[in-house]
Amino acid sequence: MPEGHSVHRIARQFAVNVVGRRVAASSPQGRFAEGAALLDGRFATRVRAVGKQMFLEFDDAVWLRVHLGMYGAWDFAGQISVDATIASANGRMGQTNQRGTDEQILDAAGENSLTSIGAPRRSRVRMSEQTTGLAGEDEWPPPVVGQVRLRLLTDVTCADLRGPTACEVLSADEVAQVIAKLGPDPLVDDVHEGEERFVAAVRRKPTPIGLLLMDQSIVSGIGNVYRAELLFRARLDPHTPGRDVPEETVREIWRDWVRLLRVGVETGQMMTMDDLDPEAYRLALANRDDRHWVYHRTGLPCRRCGTSVVLEEMGARKLYWCPGCQT
After folding, report:
1. Across the chain, what does the average pLDDT equal?
2. CB-based burial label for 3 (10 Å; 0-12, 13-18, 19+)
């Protein structure tokens, strides 16, 4: 499932390439025809990401809400400029100047791709090496491929939405109601106020911390990967009731989430291992198996203590954890 870092990257890409432009909206698949008709011909005026949801505002306070869910993704084509806040000095998406890494490094699934953000998939669009360039210039607009729920088209940029859990047109009041139900997001809310909300919510719950971290009303943006990694980094048993987790540990989980989310937005990848030398960091950017402590490592020895990493189901999702380090 696309987690919070992906949605923030998508919103920033919309801010640079779509906001401030008139948009032609359509639903090639047909499942969002009425909603697309309400958006068609409007100017995009603002975009917000909160946790795993994106909200794109159009004129007359008409909003598009998208929740990618398990399988959703946005595919981009055409002239695409990179948001400077998630690009390195020479400006290509997915680059980082950390630990001596100064060129674009993509993982095998294209997780930090400029052309497809969300559920990993092979992009259908050929991108040039320039920060801003026309992809798919042989045919414009680009042909529709597969089941496209919503296509948003400016004069030079195309954004195709596939497989979302939610795609709907809302009023400003309805957007406010949705956001009010969400837990704090470190990139949206005041970090210190968010910490206090998170600590208070966790510490009053008898629910296992492994479930609380996936509850979007408790904290926004954390999914299966970040849950496993945050709990490992905190050396915390996933089954511990929230109210029994020491307050300082809860605070450190929040602060760790703040750090990891920012890294994820910068690199486009859920990088959860620290203190890697430059070569190890490059490998981690390129290979998902090299960037996590416990996620997707069932039966393999823990990187810290050697105990076999276990897999169980919690909240109908796969949970990876180390019984040696986390009990």
Report:
1. 87
2. buried
317 carries an active-site annotation? yes
Tell me, which fold does domain 184-321 have in CATH? Helicase, Ruva Protein; domain 3 (1.10.8)
Q: What angle do CA 119, 214, 62 make, to 5 degrees?
A: 65
Specify the CATH number for 4-178; select among 3.90.550.10, 1.10.10.10, 3.20.190.10, 3.30.70.3040.
3.20.190.10
* Residue 141 known to be catalytic: no
Active-site annotation holds for 52: yes
Catalytic site includes residue 246: no
Q: Which two tokens stand for residue 66?
A: 């998208």
Query: What integer pLDDT is reported at residue 109 of this predicted model?
Result: 54
* Span 86-141, pLDDT tens digits: 543 223 333 233 333 344 555 555 555 556 666 554 434 332 222 333 444 568 99
Cα(137)–Cα(77) distance, integer angstroms = 9
The DSSP string of 68-132 is -TTT-EEEEEEB-PPPGGGB-TT--BT---GGG--S----TT-TT-SSEEES----SS---SSSS
- DSSP annotation of 3 reads -
Parse the chain into domains and list their residue ranges: 4-178, 184-321
Listed in order, strand segments (DSSP E) in the chain are 24-26, 44-50, 53-58, 62-67, 73-78, 116-118, 150-153, 157-162, 166-171, 310-314, 317-321
Sole residue written with tokens 């990876």: 320
Q: List the one residue out of 198, 201, 258 whose CA is nearest residue 230.
A: 258
Given the residues 12, 52, 162, 205, the one annotated as active site: 52
> Residues 216-250: pLDDT tens digits?
999 999 999 999 999 999 999 999 999 999 999 99
Burial of 277 (0-12, 13-18, 19+ CB in 10 A): exposed
Residue 202 has pLDDT above 90, yes or no: yes
